[in-house]
Amino acid sequence: MSQRAALWGAGVLLGTLVAVLFLALPRFSGEAKLEQKPPAPTYRLVWLPCRDTGDVLPDVDCARLLTSGDTFELDVAVLRYTESDKQASPLVYLQGGPGLRLEMDKAALVSWGHFRDYAGLKRDLILINRRGTGPRAPWQCPAYESLGRELLEADLTLAQEWAHGRKALDDCLAELAGFNPQALGTQHSVQDIKALVSLLGLDAWHLLGVSYGTRLGLALADAPGLQSIVLDSVYPPAEGGVAVWPQTLAGALEQFAAACASESSCAEQWHSRFPDLALDKDSFLSQLYDLLDELARMPMRVDVRVEGLPKRVLVNDHRFLAAVFAASYHHRRWSALVAALADGRARERKAVAALMDTFVQQALSDSVNTLTFLAVDCRDNPVGQEAAYNRQVARYPELAAYTQTLWRDQICHQWPAAEPPVLPDLSHSRARVMLLSGEFDPITPPQWSASLQRVYPQIHRSEFPATGHHILGARPCALAQLEDFISARRERIASCAE
Question: Which stretches make up the Peptidase S33 tripeptidyl aminopeptidase-like C-terminal domain (predicted)?
Answer without folding.
Answer: 404-486
